[in-house]
Amino acid sequence: MNRLKRILSISSLLFNYSERLIEGVVIALIWANTDYASLNHFLHWSPFGEHNPINFHFFINEIFMVFFFGIATKEITQACLPGGALNPIKKAINPLLATLGGVIGPVCVYFLFVSITGNNSLWRGWAIPTATDIALAWLVARFVFSEGHPAISFLLLLAIVDDGIGLAIIAIFYPDPVHPVAPVFLLFVLLGMLLSYLFRKKQVVSFWPYIVVGGTLSWFGLYMAHLHPALALVPIIPFLPRLDRFQDFFKRPVDMGLLGFGLANAGVPFSSVGPATWAVLLSLVIGKTVGVTLFSMIALRLGCPLPTGMTQKDLVVSAMTATIGMTVALFLAGVAFIDLPNQEAAKMGALMSIGMVIPVLIAAKLLKIKRRAP
Fold first, then answer.
1. How does pLDDT run across 44-53, given as a tens digit for each residue?
2. Is this prediction's pTM over 0.90?
3. What is the rounded CA–CA span in Å between residue 308 and residue 286?
4. What per-residue confidence (pLDDT) applies to 142?
5. Most buried by CB count within 10 Å: which residue of 89, 140, 235, 334?
6. Of 283, 273, 279, which is closest to residue 114 (Cα–Cα)?
7. Integer Cα distance of 95 and 158 in angstroms
8. What residue segments make up the domains of the chain, in order of their start?
9. Prior bond of 359 cis (ω within 30°)
10. Domain at 13-181+226-366, CATH from 1.10.1660.10, 1.25.40.10, 3.30.1640.10, 1.20.1530.10
11. Do residues 60 and 264 touch, judged by C-beta distance below 8 A?
């Protein structure tokens, strides 16, 4: 009876947090493989003109994801507060070193694959598997562990940082000659942080001034600097006085918006499978799992512990969960490869990493991972 209740509880959690995202991914895949042209038209059509960037794809990836990253940052901020899984700050060093391993590992595997196959056309794609899909990884982690489990704070910090690294890689190694990075606009991000600090100092209780004023300035600064504005709330959220109110307000819209996220990013034709697919997929599955686990274990040897309540078994499952790459990986594939065949094949590799959900669930079962709060 207790086993049945647990299964029903887990099924309910998966349904509540991933139903919309799964729906979006399925719709996108079906649409892309039946009428790719109409899907592309839908995603990039704008009421302001044919070439105007304000479209559905822009709204989801540049605006909606701001609030998703904001809620994720809220989780990390709380984990860093006294009593949290990442407090004292020394406990954040372990996931940060694990993040480094999660970047270096996939790059090494990718270079090894390209060297063995001798496919020189793939060299430019080395950065694609460096990123973790924060949306999917977070949902899977909440399913495998439990909301509030320290492994989730570990994984969220890792995902946000390596997504940030991925976006930095775009700016440094794949610059847009038409829109080069303009660092001077990052002053708007600093201004947004300063005003948020002043709001906090003046004991402004409502989260709206922080989001509307600080968040808007941060978004504008990143956008004008030609960096991805989805991270606009990351430097603002730590100033919020009542984090739970922010999450309570935006949680349902964000959950519902995940359908649009899946629709906007998962539309890749199945016929796109090629060498770039396996280069990206193997780099994610092998490189991230080994890199995250190895560097975290090195951190342990150096005296930097895992978050309170997180075990080494939890670490292995977390590392496997981090192999799920989609959002930033798809974006990287779009800028890394100019030729469409390699670009679509690389996107398919990132998309196929969703299949790691099954090995993650099996590993959690075999390692007897317990869903518990710290």
1. 999 888 788 8
2. no
3. 27
4. 85
5. 140
6. 279
7. 6
8. 13-181+226-366
9. no
10. 1.20.1530.10
11. yes
**Locate tokens 């995202």: which residue?**
21
Q: What percent of the chain has pLDDT over 70?
A: 94
Average pLDDT over residues 89-104: 90
Q: Which tens digits make up the pLDDT trace of 274-296?
A: 999 999 999 999 999 999 999 99
Token readout for 51 is 């070439």
Rounded CA gap, 108 and 123, in Å?
12
**Burial zone of 361 (CB within 10 Å; 0-12 exposed, 13-18 middle, 19+ buried):** middle
Residues found in the chain: 374
- What would you report as the CA-atom Rg of the chain, rounded to the nearest whole angstrom? 20
Q: What number of other Cβ atoms are within 10 A of residue 206's Cβ?
A: 14
- Rounded CA gap, 256 and 322, in Å? 23
Q: Which of 261, 225, 196, 259 is nearest to 63 (CA)?
A: 261
Residues 83-109 as b or e (16 or more Cβ within 10 Å = b) = ebbbbeeebbebbbbbbbbbbebbbbb
The span from the CA of 30 to the CA of 88, in Å, is 47
Q: Does position 13 have pLDDT exceeding 60, yes or no? A: no
pLDDT of residue 372: 61
Give the number of other Cβ atoms within 10 Å of residue 269's Cβ. 15
The shares of helix, strand and coil residues in the chain, as percent rounded to the nearest 5, are 75, 0, 25
The tens digit of pLDDT for each residue in 328-357 reads 788 788 888 888 889 889 989 998 998 999
Pair 305, 94: CB distance under 8 Å: yes
- CA–CA separation, 83 and 79 (whole Å): 8
Write down the residue that tokens 């100033």 correspond to: 239
